[in-house]
Each structure stands twice: as structure tokens, then as C-alpha cells.
User: Fold this.
Amino acid sequence: MQFDPHHLAALSGVLRHGSFDAAANALHVTPSAISQRIKALEERVGSTLINRGTPCTGTPHGLRIAKHAEDIGLLENALTRDLQLEASDAQRHLRIAINADSLATWFVQTMVQLPDILFDLELDDQDHSADWLKRGAVSAAITSTPSIPGCDAYPLGAIRYVATTSPEFHNRWFPEGITQGSLNLAPCLVFDTKDGLQRDWMAAQGAPRATPPSHYLPSTHAFVDAAVAGLGWGMNPEPLVRRALRRGRLVPLNDQATWDVPLVWQVSRVLAPALKPVTDAVVQSARAALVQP
Assistant:
């Protein structure tokens, strides 16, 4: 089945901007034209592609077709580059699954190196970002999964975490050091329900069954702020807490027990040649920022 590129652009525009009117403004056509194109595409596919609402969202079929349209754009860009043809003015969109701590510590430097690409980032834990690739929802992902069928893998190095809290919190809850009992009682900071870093670190300290009371804070920077404020202890990326540790605003629970999480850049094998400049930029930025073996 071959799709009309105008229909694909209309679908992508509605899903990206959240409404028919906003898509019409972005594509310099009328809302009626957008509506007609979406209707024609839905009739061709035989199913609804957009959930009409505020904002508009994609059905499973709609999201899959919109991703197909983005892939076509990336492949066309690569062909233009390889054949040294005159480049289009249109910027291409690239959807990537990425963990929040990579975005907060080093990935923006990658984006700066790629001014011709507009990034659509999907935030997910590094242990779960591979799922986005497996179901075809993204073109690439930063993940802790070593290999994914149908993808090329590029080891990037490890992001180093330190279990940190405020000096006052440490003195109150860990006056005799790290024990099973103290870890069971001291409030813990957790990013979200997928975040297993604190649990893994406690297991490595000899407390695999510790179940501390927990605050859930789905924000990398709020996570650091909460530790500084003495709300609890948590696993923070070392680059984000380096200054606070030097100034004594934070202290490690155990300065001999850092925790390294290896990261891998996984890119769809079909798109790997088209995304080579992206892969090169990701690898360069990551290997400069992350802990290398």
C-alpha cells in the first residue's frame, strides 16, 4: 500500500500539534484540508487513526503510520545527503526513547550537534526504553539492554550514581552507618514505579529485602533538590551532584559504593544508515560524559 505524502503529513501534523487547526497552521493549509486528508487516509486504511479530543491523540494504527511517515523522511534525507542533492528546507523529526538522567546530564550536547533534526523524546527508564523499539514506536533508544533483535547496538559507557542525602538526614537516620534496620526506616526517594536503582543499591549493601518509606519524584532535578533539602536519600547521577558533594550540601551514604549503569545506543537496523550522523554524535557525546570501561 502506498500512502499519499500529503495525507501522511496531515496525520503527523495533527498528532504532533494536538489539533486540526494547529496542524493546518504548521502546514499552511486550511483546517478543512487537514480534515479531508485525514478522512481520506482513514478510508484508505479502513480504521480510525485519530482520537478526536483535546488534544487529539493517535490510535495504535495512527501512531504506527505516523512513525512510518517519519521514517520515510529520515530515509529521504539520507538519500539526499548521499547523492549530494539539493537539500529540502524541511526539518526531519526523530523519535527516541531516552532515560531522564541521560537527558539531564549529557544528551542535549548531542542535540546541539544535529541542527537539521527535530527531536521527539520519549522519557522512560533505561531498563524499559527497549520496549519502545520492540513495538516500533521509536527509531532509536538509549537503554541498558545489550541487544535488541533488528537493531544495531553501540555501547556508550556507564552513568555513575551515588546514594546521597543531606548531612542532617544522614546524621539522623544513619548515625551508626548503613544497616538493614536503618535502610528500612529512612525515607527513600524513588523516581517512579519503574525505578529500581535504590532497590538494587540496597541489595548490594546487604539489604535485599529493605522496604523503606518512599517519596515518588518523577523529575531529575527535583530528585537532587529533595536530597539537598533532607527529604530522603536517593541515587543521583554523579555529574548532577558533584558540586553539592564538594560544598557539603550532600553526603554519600557510602562513599565506597557508587553504582554504574551501562548504557547502549540501539538504532533500528533499517534506519541505521540514515541515522549514522545521529549515531556518531550520540557516541561522541556519551563517551566524553560517561564512565568508560
